[in-house]
Design a protein that fits this description.
alpha/beta, eight-stranded mixed beta sheet, four-stranded antiparallel beta sheet, single chain, 338 residues, 24% strand, globular, 13 helices
């Protein structure tokens, strides 16, 4: 069995906002990412995707508390002191944030920020760092790479700023790249260019990618494996092809039905009724039960476990736990009731 590059074990990120109020942003997430693969983490806004990535990077501040295990190449990052973790960030793992305009410092040039990132993790001279910065900008598609070093973030388009973020993230050849909604707020043409660039960079540096997105079209095009998140938990895990052709969880089914399709001639897209439950007031049982048309009384009382549905798939639903029947499973597979 392949050795995992990143492994999360029962990861919990709780915010203790008051004595009687705890926000469970991430609640018992376990996952593995292996060498040279792209894993997509998908779900609605508020499902816990971005908070999972912030927890991995060690960027959760009080009153947030992160527990469980975050293992990168076997080393538990939660046991490390800040100085050691700071060395790993950018060196072994890096992150592309959702909005590059707020991630880049507006008062420093692109070159200044790239050179600083390189010299922070590599023992090179400023001249050598500048040379590497130019090469990185060329790699991510800057035709005037040397001149662009002198430009400030506000002088670049959204797509070019995102390219700078990718260049900065890859400046030290990290094995793990976390991309949090990397194509948000970009037009369709630029989105495709950024996705192509990420695939190119992955191949160039032989990195693995954790892609966080709500865009299932992006997932279908890029991911090897998909993790579906809801209410701070993983509710389904499957190879990308299997998930799109045969979703198991009712929530996954609903997400796919809400996607526009070329062959459909509909005035309105289908939507999942209701809203995601608040993270400080999750129900006792299944967190999707109030929105699920297959829910029974048991769903409201018992929290389902993430169980192995077959060799390469997992699902969190009482209909797949031991002792359940196949009748309702078939209704989900056939789409009846959704």
């Amino acid at each position: 069995m392949a050795k995992s590059l990143l492994e999360l074990v029962n990861l919990k990120t709780y915010f203790h906002v008051s004595k009687h109020r705890i926000v469970k942003a991430v609640d018992g997430v376990s996952l593995s990412i292996y060498d040279d693969e792209i894993v997509a983490l998908v779900g609605e806004s508020g499902s816990g995707k971005s908070m999972t990535s912030m927890s991995i990077m060690g960027l959760v501040d009080p009153p947030g508390e992160v527990t469980g295990e975050i293992r990168l190449n076997g080393e538990n990052l939660l046991k490390l002191k800040e100085k050691k973790l700071d060395k790993i960030r950018g060196d072994q793992m890096a992150m592309i944030f959702q909005e590059p305009m707020t991630s880049l410092n507006p008062v420093f040039t692109i070159g200044n920020q790239l050179i600083e990132a390189i010299r922070k993790h590599k023992k090179v001279t400023k001249k050598e760092a500048k040379k590497q910065a130019v090469e990185l900008l060329r790699l991510v598609g800057f035709s005037r790479a040397e001149e662009s070093l002198k430009e400030f973030p506000h002088q670049l388009s959204g797509g070019m700023r995102q390219r700078v973020m990718i260049a900065m993230a890859m400046s030290c050849n990290p094995k793990l790249l976390i991309a949090d909604e990397p194509t948000t707020a970009l037009d369709v043409t630029i989105q495709q260019q950024i996705l192509d660039l990420m695939l190119k960079v992955k191949s160039e540096f032989q990195s693995s990618i954790l892609l966080i997105t709500h865009d299932l079209g992006v997932v279908a095009e890029t991911a090897n494996r998909v993790l579906v998140m809801y209410g701070g938990q993983i509710v389904e895990e499957a190879p990308a092809f299997d998930l799109f052709t045969n979703p198991l969880h009712p929530y996954t089914k609903g997400l796919l039905r809400s996607m526009p399709k070329m062959e459909d001639n509909k005035d309105r897209l289908e939507a999942i009724s209701g809203t995601v439950p608040l993270a400080h007031n999750f129900p006792k049982g299944c967190r999707f039960a109030a929105r699920c048309k297959f829910a029974t009384d048991a769903c409201a009382d018992k929290m389902p476990e993430l169980v192995q549905a077959n060799d390469n798939r997992k699902v969190r639903c009482l209909l797949y736990e031991e002792g359940s029947t196949t009748a309702d499973r078939n209704r989900i597979t056939e789409g009846k009731g959704l």
